Amino acid sequence: MAQTPQQRRANERFAKNEAAKRGRGSTIKPKQVTKSPVSAGWVVVLAFVVCGGLLLELLRIVPELWTSIAAMLSRLTG
Q1: What pLDDT sits at residue 38?
Q2: What share of the chain is helix, strand, coil (3-state, %, to 5)?
Q3: pTM
Q4: What does each of the 78 residues of the chain score in pLDDT, given as a tens digit?
Q5: Which residues touch 46 (CB under 8 Å, ≥6 apart)?
Q6: All residues at 6 or more sequence positions from 3 whose CB lies less than 8 Å from its CB, including other chains
Q7: SS in 3 state form for the chain?
Q8: 52 alpha carbon, distance to own chain's centre
């Protein structure tokens, strides 16, 4: 199948663009490594303080909740 004049012009434009791309070198920018303003050690300390405090608070609250639930059940059944 022969090319139409419109297809021929489109192919010539495409070839011209591709040749222009090859003439220029590709400029790839290297990725910049971003450094965190807080060190990993401080993140670990902060997580320990927050999670440790949460764990201690749960250990304090759970027995109180258990005793109140047990008292409520004993009132309902007795």
Answers
A1: 87
A2: 75, 0, 25
A3: 0.37
A4: 788 999 999 999 998 888 888 876 556 677 888 888 889 999 999 999 989 988 888 888 988 888 999 999 999 887
A5: none
A6: 11
A7: CCCCHHHHHHHHHHHHHHHHHHHCCCCCCCCCCCCCCCCHHHHHHHHHHHHHHHHHHHHHHHHHHHHHHHHHHHHHHC
A8: 25
